[in-house]
């Protein structure tokens, strides 16, 4: 049975099994305010799905 010569460090193990990726934010044009906003988020002017939710 094969046995490794040295112990694998925690940093090396974490590097090997990482699945994290940098993704771009989803941006959609909101026609109610006439501006771009991130999907599933309240806009800077307080609108969500065409309704004013924050004063």
Automatic annotation (TrEMBL):
Domain of life: Bacteria
Position of the signal peptide: none
Keyword line: Ribonucleoprotein, Ribosomal protein
UniProt keyword Ribosomal protein present: yes
Composition skew (Basic residues), residue ranges: 7-21
GO CC field: ribosome
Region of interest called Disordered, as start-end residue ranges on this chain: 1-21
UniProt similarity note: Belongs to the bacterial ribosomal protein bL32 family.
PANTHER family per the UniProt record, alphabetical: 50S RIBOSOMAL PROTEIN L32, LARGE RIBOSOMAL SUBUNIT PROTEIN BL32
Protein name, entry field: Large ribosomal subunit protein bL32
Lineage, top ranks: Bacteria, Bacillati, Bacillota, Bacilli, Lactobacillales
Gene (UniProt): rpmF
């Amino acid at each position: 049975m094969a046995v490794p010569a040295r112990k694998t460090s925690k940093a090396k193990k974490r590097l090997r099994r990482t699945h994290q990726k940098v993704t771009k934010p989803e941006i959609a044009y909101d026609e109610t305010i006439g501006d771009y906003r991130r999907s599933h988020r309240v806009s800077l002017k307080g609108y969500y799905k065409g309704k004013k939710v924050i004063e």
